[in-house]
Amino acid sequence: MTQRVIEMPNLGMGTFRLEGKTAYDSVKMALEVGFRHIDTAQIYGNEQQVGQAIKDSNIPRDELFITTKVWNNKLNKSDFIASVKESLNKLQLDSVDLLLIHWPAPSNDEPMSEYLTELLTAKQLGLTKHIGVSNFTIANLKAAMQTLDAREIFTNQIEVHPYLTNTKLRAFCQQHDIHVTAYMPFVVGKVLSDETIIDIANKHGASPAQVVIAWENANGMTTIPSSTKRKNLEDNFNDKAVKLDEEDIARIDALDCGDRQATPDFAPQWDQ
């Protein structure tokens, strides 16, 4: 099987927990630093600020890759498309590059076939270039493939970091040519003070953040760290790519301890 070419930049700017002026300033700084991939979601409540920062950047639209996600209470035939159009209005865009189902957790237990059909409709209407999912387990993906051709599932955005390597799910995605986008790469900062990560960073003359990003990319994943500080954004984006060797990657892989950060009460039964 020929592996799909992914045009999504392998490093993006995440905006989870960024609100108001902080969201605007962070996205504007990220774009100034050189980021061209911005990730947001309806539930973050910052699509308006993200959109304004994109507009004020004056960067040509075709140079940007913008992702948003549909929330649980909109996963039905009545509300789905209208909610996407509302997101586009807030973002001041005609379309996004990627539209995701945020969680396989519809508020009113709508069947997956219903909201995935609406997701495909959004693509057919030109509201998004690509479609995908987020927080889908192997069982969820198998169910999704009953409605969508696996080739339509551009990515599965999941929590992956050195403390939660999510190996089984990643292997399933690779088997079906579904790209993995890793969120929370720094484990809310915890992994940046890990002795192993620091040791590898010192070996390469890099920062711990650069090592974690290099590990994500070495494993074929896109990652979307978040930061509100220009120095950290510049550090994350630094072109001086860290090239990890096999020993480095094995040492980081060995840090896996199942330390999951995102596990709301409506989360699916996670793969072990």
SSE blueprint:
Blueprint: E1 13-14, H1 20-33, E2 37-39, H2 47-57, E3 65-70, H3 80-91, E4 96-101, H4 112-124, E5 128-134, H5 138-144, E6 153-159, H6 167-175, E7 179-183, H7 195-204, H8 208-218, E8 222-223, H9 230-237, H10 246-253
Parallel strand pairs: 1-2, 2-3, 3-4, 4-5, 5-6, 6-7, 7-8
What do these coordinates show?
GO terms for molecular function: methylglyoxal reductase (NADPH) (acetol producing) activity. Keywords: NADP, Oxidoreductase. Substrate binds at residue 102. It is a single chain. With 272 residues, this protein is an alpha/beta fold. The chain has one domain: NADP-dependent oxidoreductase domain (TIM Barrel, Alpha-Beta Barrel). It is built from 10 helices and 8 strands. It has helices at residues 20-33, 47-57, 80-91, 112-124, 138-144, 167-175, 195-204, 208-218, 230-237, 246-253; strands spanning 13-14, 37-39, 65-70, 96-101, 128-134, 153-159, 179-183, 222-223. It has an 8-stranded parallel sheet with strand order 1-2-3-4-5-6-7-8, with helices on one face. Helix 4 (112-124) links the parallel strand 4 and strand 5. Helix 1 runs parallel beside helix 9 (230-237) and helix 2 crosses helix 3. It is globular, with a radius of gyration of 18 Å. The mean pLDDT is 96.
